[in-house]
Write a structure and sequence with these properties.
Order of helices and strands: HHEEEEEEEEEEEEH
CATH architecture: Sandwich
Radius of gyration: 20 Å
Number of domains: 1
Distance between the termini: 70 Å
Number of helices: 3
Helix content: 10-25%
CATH superfamily: Jelly Rolls
Number of strands: 12
Strand order of the largest sheet: 1-2-11-4-9
Length: 178
């Protein structure tokens, strides 16, 4: 009986040793990721909580500094929904139809008719972008894995790419049209 009990205790101890450590989502983490975002030409930075591209789901902070531009895109092949929660600051999640017309806008991090609007869950295949309205917006994002760069997202042909000279004006217009 003691041998069996010892084996169970040893197995439990081994499992506990393999468990990942708890990682805190804190102001210190926000500041560290924001410093990296500010130094990045793209003016944004992710901090992953998942361990690899094959993990499911993917969970990460997405720190967006004012002036970043994320080209409208969708996740349709394979279909993936996406959830954004704003933990600090304010950001607009903007949805589009297939021709690039704005169909909805959600100001995350502010009060709305529904109360404080913390986040949005975007169905698979929906054209969208997210743009910060404050100096920085810290978002917690969740979407299904695995991540494969070749098919992670389909970029909208009707919107400028991140590197096009017209991208900053396009992003400003999206924010001003609110």
């Amino acid at each position: 009986m003691r041998a069996a009990s010892h084996q169970v205790c040893t197995a439990v101890a081994a499992k506990i040793e393999r468990m990942p450590e708890v990682r805190l989502i804190s102001g210190t983490l926000f500041d560290r990721v924001a410093r990296s975002a500010a130094a990045s030409p793209r003016r944004r930075m992710n901090h992953n909580f998942h361990f690899g591209s094959a993990d499911n789901p993917h969970r990460f902070l997405n720190v967006l500094m004012q002036g970043t531009y994320i080209q409208p895109h969708r996740h349709s092949n394979p279909p993936k929904s996406e959830t954004f929660l704003v933990l600090e600051g304010t950001a607009d999640v903007i949805l589009f139809d297939d021709d690039g017309a704005v169909t909805a806008r959600y100001r995350l991090g502010e009060d709305s008719a529904e109360g404080h609007l913390w986040g949005v869950d975007i169905p698979a295949g929906t054209w969208h972008t997210i743009l910060p309205r404050t100096a920085r917006a810290v978002c917690f994002e969740v979407k299904p894995g695995p991540w494969q760069p070749s098919n992670d997202k389909e970029f909208a042909g009707w919107a400028p790419s991140e590197n096009e000279s017209s991208a900053p004006a396009y992003a400003r217009n999206l924010l001003e049209d609110a």
